Amino acid sequence: MKMLCPQCGSALPPEAVNIATDLAQCPECGQVNRASACVVEDEISKDVLRQPPPGTWLRQEADAIVVGTTMRSKSAWAMVLFTSVWSGISIFGIYGIQIIKRSFELTPTLFGIPFLLVTIFLVGTTIYMIFGRQEWRLDKDGGSGFNGVGRFGKRWRFAWKDLSRIHTHTTRDNHGNTSYKLILEGVSPELKISLPECKERQQFIINAIRYYHQQWRRWK
Ligand SMILES: [Zn+2]
């Protein structure tokens, strides 16, 4: 962990830092700062971008670099099975029978509407779990991103100058499912982006963003 004085930029020796009180006094300029405000992220080397792990990609375009990852989830096949069985039975039972008998019945048709909506939701979720992808376009001013399937999904934009910190947030729900979010602090509104399950893919995306953020700080 590297620590620099935010006032004059000198490196802070360990004896200048008091972790318990979260204070650090710079031996060069005498300035007292919050210790946590003096921590600098480790340098990211370009090597982390040389070998995108399976399921991720990186390409150079005229004015930007594009990094992406599949959002494919390991439980996608369980979801395919569940959706087929659940929707197959309920939709066939409600609408299939009417079509075969060529008789329209109002009550079951209305009763079936919630099942249709749930089916649409399940099919959408399944498609995302198989074909979902995330792509970031990073240029000299900032970046934009997309997360979804085909042309449907979430889009966002941010500028390097607003970005103060990049970190991940892990949540575990009651069913034991873990989900990961990438948080871009400082941009407004704060961006919370879903990350893939695979740690290597997560790390690749985070490193790529950190690397270009670091380059921007050097060039500005
Ligand atoms: Zn100083």
- Distinct small-molecule ligands in the complex: zinc ion
CATH architecture of the largest domain: Roll
The best one-word shape is: elongated
Distance between the termini: 24 Å
Number of strands: 13
CATH class of the largest domain: Mainly Beta
Main sheet?
5 strands, antiparallel
Helix content: 25-40%
**Structural class label:** alpha+beta
- The CATH topology of the largest domain comes to PH-domain like
What is the domain total for the residues? 3
Plain-language structure description:
The chain is α+β, with helices and mostly antiparallel strands and 220 residues long. The protein folds into three domains: 2-37, no CATH class; 44-71 and 134-219, PH-domain like; 76-128, no CATH class. The protein is built from four helices and 13 strands. The chain has helices spanning 76-101, 106-111, 113-131, 199-219, and strands at 2-3, 17-18, 23-25, 32-34, 39-40, 56-60, 65-70, 133-138, 142-149, 152-159, 165-172, 178-185, 191-194. The strands form four sheets. Strands 6-7-8-9-10 form a five-stranded antiparallel sheet. Helix 1 (76-101) packs antiparallel against helix 3 (113-131). The two termini are 24 Å apart. The model has no long low-confidence stretch (mean pLDDT 90). Zinc ion binds next to loops.
